[in-house]
Amino acid sequence: AAGLAVLHRCRKQKDSSARKRELKLTYFDIRSSGEPIRLALAIAGIPFQDERIPSDADGYAEVALRRLRGLNGSSGTVPVLTVDGARHSQSNALLRFVGKEFGKRHGSTLGWVGYPSCSCGQLYCDEVSEAIAEIQNRLLPAYYGAAMARSLKTGEPNVPLSEAQRLEMLRALNEDALPSKLSLLEALLLKGQRGKFGEREEDAAAAARATATTVDEAVSGARTEGGDSDRSACKTTGSSGGGGGGSSKKGGPWFLGDKLSICDLACFVLVSELLDGSGPAGVRGAFVLGGCPALRAHAEALARLPAVAQHNAKCGYSPSWVN
Asked: Model's pTM, two decimal places?
């Protein structure tokens, strides 16, 4: 009887996870931290309500009012993903949820895994995502012209910068912080493209010196490779059990080799906003990405994927920087 009860519970859980979820994403009418979530849902072919708040003073005031009414989840701001009536926030957590819930076997883009199922793939995906989040956090004062971005209570700029402070901040971003951080992100991409994530540092150094995958190769690989499972991506050989020696992980155009994941989408939005000038005024996107040809090729490859191109066209976004 106990065994039958366990089987019944497992079947109920399976039926619950397989049912169609009601989703609503609430964010400003801009790309930024809400766009990777929109892209993940679009690639997976999952319908959702795309609620967009005007990205102006009234919109920021509306978000502050929503916070006071308890409508913005734990972060107090947007994006907010409402899942079957329950509100959730924190953009990276939302993106990870979508990747887990609607990863492989969703959508028609070959190689799409969303959030990897193997532990070393998850670690590498999280490492890349946190590196991107760190860059985005450094950009926030430049977005808002304020040291503390916007007030959660009023939506107004919090601790506004003087003109001299703003110019000095832009100098530090353009000449130091952004080129340095983006070069580290480039190294992570090159390592992943060679299928070397989860391996020793000497392997990472070799990957960082490798030539980036070309755009044409990236697009071709994304359309012809892939598979139903990403668990094999973490299999390694050798007696240490720690990832040294040989590896069966496959190379490819993405951060996880031939597997397209949520960290690719986050990187795509970051790089595309630097290139199209929709980032903070005064940030020299083409300049800070000058030493990162692989990041640009990666963004161009993603922009050319049919599911991404269709989503961009639907949202009225035309990446003029794609060659």
From this structure: 0.83
